[in-house]
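Batch job 17 of 40 flagged for manual review because the log was empty.
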Amino acid sequence: MSNKTVRNERRKLTASYSNGIVIALFAIGVLSQIIGIVQDGERPLGSAMVALICTLASLCLHWIASSYLGGLED
């Protein structure tokens, strides 16, 4: 296996792992807040802020994960 192939596979693995963290962050930070709001019937400002911060953080981390793939070699 060539060094280029190994580097590409490592980049794919890093991007995939990072994207898994993004999905977990979104699920815990956003979906759990939405479920809590639906169950309680209230919309506290704290829940909205947590959801917003987790959404922004997951978008940033997703962008970083996709940037790893920009370095793939032909």
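Reviewer: the log was empty due to a logging misconfiguration, but the result itself is present. DSSP finds two helices and no strands in the chain. Unflagging and moving on to job 18.
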